[in-house]
């Protein structure tokens, strides 16, 4: 799946909590422990499913028959499989070779999400066909078989159906061994209304029935995990192209197919590259990307084999609203889901413990692919931000190892987090840099070949990489994936002698909330460079190391920023690097900003160091460097919430730095301007608006007022950000105007954007109105949770209290499997110590002890904010007094 990031991601990346570090413990070998990984009784396994499905979209229900070929390995008189919210009408079993069927009595365990079929006599070992007749419900959130409603081109309400089965929701449509290791083939046939398009993993053939309906039979899939099955149905259009013998398709609601052109073009480029990279060609005859209107709080796209599902905002480009950032997101999302067609679909993790194998790898691959196909986007510079996203959590007690043991469905859902995705990605980037691109790719190819159609654990990958690289990569991989936390590399005083510089390095741990924590030990691959010079490499092990470089000068450690660790320089060296900032590679400029921001707020170096960098950054620095500076300042702005006087001083400094950059860019895109420039423009408008910059707010208002008469006043690239500024500073009349626009809007993308904006008003009374509106029928069932999330960005306590007070209504508007995550996320931005007790009370009343990951992460973030405010911000105040102003 492609994670949906919190809108406050930029601010979150700056979260920091004071901590000291302890010295590293001696090296010991961390080993993976094999775990049992099934919740179903062993002894019976499926090999093939024949499923006949008749959905009734209007009644939100379906009827079905599943005929499952099973192998009974050990004599048994019962079979247990997964089923959730299904009603069984009949169950029987017959030998596969022919012979009389035996009826079964059915019992259902709703808590365990299982159904057990008991037979009058024991089944001898052998092959059988289990026939189940049943019915189920079609939901409104992206879980199991669900519907999405939207206004059609003719103004009438339309309903389309889709499925979402990861991680454990195939059982809501098919009684099944719903665990990744139980791979089987699937042959789906569906009886559906004439005139609608039915889509699944494989190509289908339609026949018209006597009653006018159509029956579509899809070819059987290869052996695969249940969570990868897909079915979609609606008034769709499809465009297709053939590449390397595979039919690539995009499918949208009628009328929107032109907006999927870029996604289709991108898929062509990506398929060619992946066929080469993985060394195993894409094995299915076709690969569709199916667009769904609406949204989920938790994901933007899903890698169903041969039939990727993507919410419209991550697949369609509408000239009326789409930005350069959206364009990049369409490419990145497609690259992520297509990487899964191999890493996840062809070769699947054995159990959710190794989910990162899917997600870390796909996240890394999306970045690699994007850089290769679109070097003009400079996307490799975004790697630091992604790494920071993981480190925010990984430097607190609320973290967990990349490989973690999972027991329950809820735990599996919580595993789709920044550690699994971003840390997984960062660790892969580091290991690839350590062994080299060619060795890494050869290892991946060997892994694909060895495990196609099978299941794996992380060590299967390390084994192949190590063989290809002839380097001891497994030990390093274990250090970073089996233990939690962020290494800290302290850079000692460099010694320059005879034209050579030697720098001592020591390894500690970067922990923000456990000052007395004994540091864990990591083997850390380190790359260092003197500005303009060549890379030097070393492996820090046993807590100590050193690196030698040709020449003399200030040394940048973690040059190229592929390492997963924080770098702490002695004050003199930091000053030297700050002085040479303009001459550093852009990625190292971003790395230096990132480390000094985090280490500063943690009390390991002056908190103002990052502001000194911001002050000295040249106007001509890369757009992404300025994007980072804007992100750091926006993060600090949030830390001053509740202190308006002090916040104003910071804002004045920020505006003084950022307004000249904005002036240089201008509001109007220049012909042929670089993509990162367009992204920076939108970010700066947003940040300057947050900082209360009167010039930017007035210009946004002016353009908004003019847009109905003069569409050029708000081109598509600016529409979302201009409306966001207007909504943020709206008065009641403006808010009512935005709501009227939302109500009248027919395009799902624009409509859901407008409703989300209603939640972002700073005016508290308007924020309250947005909360009330969210739970009415007006915004549509998939917009409510986003609106309340938008309110939470300004008023986390109010949004959290409101959502909890209306839990029944809320729960109809959040994906069932991920409910345990939503409430904690609303509270995440709070700086109120009282929120911690509220979160604990909520968790105590509603969550299993094993499902507290998101609550703990939110509590860590709140406690961090409280502590930083008390202990670190005074230093920033003092610096601003001396250096701020205009
Ligand atoms: Zn994914």
What do you see in this structure?
- It is built from 28 helices and 30 strands.
- With 886 residues, it is an alpha+beta fold.
- A 10-stranded mixed β-sheet has the order 4-7-6-5-8-3-2-11-14-13, with no helix packed on it. A 6-stranded mixed β-sheet has the order 1-19-20-18-17-16.
- Helix 14 packs parallel to helix 16, helix 21 packs antiparallel against helix 22 and helix 22 packs antiparallel against helix 23.
- The longest helix has 22 residues.
- The two termini are 46 Å apart.
- About 3% of the residues have low confidence.
Question: In brief, what are we looking at here?
Answer:
Helix content is 40%, strand content 22%. The chain has 886 residues and is an alpha+beta fold.
* Widest sheet: strand ordering: 4-7-6-5-8-3-2-11-14-13
Low-confidence stretches: 6-28
Strand content: 15-25%
State the shape.
globular
Strand pairing plus helix content: what structural class? alpha+beta
Radius of gyration: 28 Å
List the helices and strands and how they pair.
Blueprint: E1 2-3, H1 9-12, E2 44-56, E3 61-72, E4 76-82, E5 87-95, E6 102-109, E7 114-123, E8 126-137, E9 144-151, E10 157-164, E11 185-192, E12 197-200, E13 204-208, E14 214-218, E15 231-234, E16 236-243, E17 246-253, H2 261-278, E18 286-292, E19 299-302, E20 307-311, H3 324-340, E21 348-349, H4 355-373, H5 383-394, H6 409-414, H7 418-435, H8 437-451, E22 455-456, H9 458-469, H10 473-482, E23 487-491, E24 495-497, E25 500-509, E26 524-530, E27 536-540, E28 544-550, E29 555-557, E30 566-569, H11 571-579, H12 586-601, H13 609-616, H14 623-639, H15 644-665, H16 675-690, H17 694-706, H18 716-728, H19 732-744, H20 748-758, H21 764-774, H22 784-794, H23 796-805, H24 807-811, H25 819-827, H26 834-846, H27 853-871, H28 873-883
Parallel strand pairs: 2-11, 17-18, 18-20, 21-22, 23-30
Antiparallel strand pairs: 1-19, 2-3, 3-8, 4-7, 5-6, 5-8, 6-7, 9-10, 11-14, 12-15, 13-14, 16-17, 19-20, 23-25, 24-25, 25-28, 26-27, 26-29
Helix pairs in contact: 2-3, 3-4, 4-7, 5-7, 7-8, 7-10, 8-9, 12-13, 12-14, 14-15, 14-16, 15-16, 15-28, 16-18, 17-18, 18-20, 19-20, 20-22, 21-22, 22-23, 23-25, 25-27, 26-27
This protein binds zinc ion (ZN).
């Amino acid at each position: 799946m492609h994670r949906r990031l919190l809108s406050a991601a930029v601010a979150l990346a700056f979260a920091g909590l004071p901590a000291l570090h302890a010295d590293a413990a001696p090296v010991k070998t961390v080993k993976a422990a094999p775990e049992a990984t099934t919740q179903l009784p062993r002894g019976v396994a499926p090999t093939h499913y024949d499923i006949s499905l008749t959905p009734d979209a209007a009644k939100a229900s379906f009827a079905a028959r599943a005929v499952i070929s099973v192998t009974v390995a050990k004599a048994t008189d019962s079979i247990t499989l997964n089923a959730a919210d299904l009603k069984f009408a009949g169950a029987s079993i017959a030998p596969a070779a022919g012979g009389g069927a035996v009826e079964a009595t059915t019992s259902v365990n709703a808590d365990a999400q299982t159904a057990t079929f008991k037979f009058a006599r024991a089944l001898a070992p052998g092959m059988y066909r289990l026939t189940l007749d049943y019915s189920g419900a079609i939901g409104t959130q992206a879980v199991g078989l669900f519907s999405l409603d939207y206004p059609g081109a003719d103004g009438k309400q339309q309903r389309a159906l889709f499925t979402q089965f990861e991680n454990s929701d195939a059982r809501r449509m098919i009684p099944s061994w719903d665990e990744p290791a139980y791979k089987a083939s699937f042959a789906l046939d569906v009886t559906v209304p004439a005139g609608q398009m039915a889509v699944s993993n494989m190509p289908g053939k339609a026949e018209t029935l006597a009653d006018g309906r159509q029956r579509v039979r899809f070819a059987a899939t290869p052996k695969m995990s249940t969570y990868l099955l897909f079915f979609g149905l609606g008034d769709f259009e499809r465009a297709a192209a053939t590449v390397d013998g595979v039919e690539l398709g995009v499918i949208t609601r009628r009328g929107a197919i032109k907006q999927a052109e870029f996604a289709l073009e991108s898929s062509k480029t990506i398929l060619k590259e992946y066929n080469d990279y993985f060394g195993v060609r894409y094995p299915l005859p076709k690969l569709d990307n199916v667009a769904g209107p609406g949204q989920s709080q938790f994901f933007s796209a899903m890698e169903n084999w041969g039939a990727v599902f993507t919410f419209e905002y991550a697949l369609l480009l509408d000239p009326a609203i789409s930005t350069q950032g959206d364009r990049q997101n369409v490419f990145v999302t497609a690259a992520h889901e297509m990487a899964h067609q191999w890493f996840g679909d062809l070769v699947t993790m054995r159990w959710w413990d190794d989910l990162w194998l899917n997600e870390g790898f796909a996240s890394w691959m999306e970045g690699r692919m994007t850089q290769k196909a679109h070097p003009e986007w400079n996307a490799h510079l975004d790697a630091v931000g992604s790494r920071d996203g993981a480190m925010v959590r990984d430097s607190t007690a609320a973290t967990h190892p990349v490989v973690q043991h999972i027991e329950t469905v809820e735990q599996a859902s919580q595993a789709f987090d920044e550690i699994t995705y971003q840390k997984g990605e960062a660790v892969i980037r580091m290991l690839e840099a350590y062994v080299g691109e060619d060795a890494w790719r050869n290892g991946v190819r060997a892994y694909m070949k060895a495990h196609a159609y099978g299941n794996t654990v992380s060590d299967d990958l390390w084994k192949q990489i190590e063989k290809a690289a002839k380097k001891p990569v497994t030990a390093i991989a274990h250090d970073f994936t089996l233990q939690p936390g962020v290494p800290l590399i302290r850079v000692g005083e460099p010694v320059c002698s005879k034209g050579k510089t030697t720098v001592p390095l020591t390894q500690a741990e970067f922990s923000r909330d456990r000052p007395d924590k004994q540091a864990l030990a990591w083997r850390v691959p380190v790359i260092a460079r003197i500005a303009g010079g060549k890379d030097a490499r070393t492996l820090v092990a046993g807590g100590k190391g050193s690196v030698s470089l040709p020449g003399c000068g200030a040394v940048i450690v973690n040059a190229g920023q592929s390492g997963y660790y924080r770098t702490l320089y002695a004050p003199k060296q930091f000053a030297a690097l700050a002085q040479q900032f303009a001459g550093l590679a852009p990625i190292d400029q971003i790395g230096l900003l990132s480390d000094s921001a985090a280490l500063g707020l943690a009390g390991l170096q002056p908190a103002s160091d990052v502001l000194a960098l911001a002050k000295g950054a040249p106007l001509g620095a890369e757009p992404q460097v300025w994007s980072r500076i804007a992100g750091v300042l926006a993060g600090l702005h949030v830390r001053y919430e509740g202190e308006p006087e002090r916040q104003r001083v910071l804002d004045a400094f920020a505006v003084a730095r950022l307004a000249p950059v904005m002036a240089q860019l201008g509001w109007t895109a220049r012909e042929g301007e670089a993509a990162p420039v367009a992204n920076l423009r939108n970010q700066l408008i947003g940040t300057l608006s947050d900082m209360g910059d009167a010039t930017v707010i007035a210009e946004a208002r002016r353009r908004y007022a003019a847009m109905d008469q003069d569409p050029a006043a708000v081109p598509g690239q600016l529409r979302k950000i201009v409306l966001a500024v207007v909504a943020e500073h709206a008065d009641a009349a403006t808010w009512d105007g935005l709501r009227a626009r939302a109500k009248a809007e027919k395009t799902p993308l624009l409509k859901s954007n407008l409703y989300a904006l209603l939640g972002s008003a700073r005016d508290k009374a308007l924020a309250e109105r947005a909360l009330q509106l969210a739970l009415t029928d007006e915004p549509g069932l998939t917009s409510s949770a986003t609106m309340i999330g938008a309110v939470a960005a300004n008023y986390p306590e109010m949004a959290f209290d409101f959502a909890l007070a209306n839990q029944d209504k809320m729960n109809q508007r959040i994906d069932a499997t991920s409910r345990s995550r939503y409430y904690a996320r609303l509270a995440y931005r709070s700086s109120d110590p009282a929120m911690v007790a509220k979160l604990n009370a909520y968790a105590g009343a509603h969550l299993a002890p094993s499902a507290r990951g998101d609550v703990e992460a939110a509590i860590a973030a709140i406690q961090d904010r409280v502590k930083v405010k008390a202990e670190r911000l005074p230093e920033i105040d003092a610096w601003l007094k001396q250096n701020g102003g205009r």
